[in-house]
Design goal:
alpha+beta; four-stranded antiparallel sheet; 4 strands; rod-shaped
């Protein structure tokens, strides 16, 4: 649609495209406040912390989970227990039930507990149970695939969590500085507005 102006006039009256200025918070200009530079440095530090800290936190979580599994492998032992009673009848459709078993800990103390067993076993049968260093019954350590899955899940959770934390702090810092600048501009305008009104009257 033509505006009725010559082509040259139309080009002169057109709005100039907005060009993004990089690193403007560190460049000296009349519109930049000291808070802009402070905000810029804080945001830069947050960016570095997110870029380095989030993956590093994920790697630490990965190593921690795998080290915990390795520690469980050294602290837990597979021990033979002897059934001291016949297993209880299994529930309908199941081949597993529980029975009282007894075993000896590495320090020579006897331990007794109800353990999961097959319903076909009888008193005197030997069943494997996992025990800790004190001889108390415990759960089996996770399999290698399960340990890697847990480590990956922990690493992902920590990485994403730290990333969101950095973004939240980034937004909080920006909002706080914007409010402070708005309040400062309001005070400055309240100071110069009367003089401005007299000049334009």
């Amino acid at each position: 649609m033509s505006t009725g102006l010559p082509a040259g006039r139309e080009e002169e009256g057109a709005a100039a495209p907005v060009r993004k200025v990089w690193l403007w918070r560190w460049r000296g200009n009349e519109l930049r406040h000291r808070s802009h530079a402070v905000e810029g440095w804080i945001l830069l530090l947050l960016g570095v912390a997110g870029f380095v800290g989030a993956p590093l936190g994920g790697a630490v979580a990965w190593d921690t989970v795998l080290e915990g599994r390795a520690r469980q492998l050294t602290e837990r032992h597979l021990t033979d227990a002897v059934l001291v009673e016949d297993p209880a009848p299994a529930a309908r459709g199941s081949t597993r039930t529980r029975a009282t078993a007894q075993w000896t800990a590495p320090d020579g103390t006897a331990h007794t507990a109800r353990v999961p067993v097959g319903s076909h076993l009888e008193r005197g049968a030997r069943v494997p149970v996992w025990t800790d260093e004190d001889g108390a019954m415990t759960s089996a350590p996770p399999a290698p695939a399960a340990a890697r899955f847990d480590a990956a899940a922990a690493a992902l959770a920590v990485t994403v969590g730290l990333g969101f934390l950095v973004l939240a702090v980034h937004r909080l810092v920006r909002r706080r500085h914007e409010r402070r600048r708005a309040a400062q501009w309001g005070r400055e305008w309240a100071r110069v507005a009367p003089e401005w009104d007299r000049r334009t009257a």
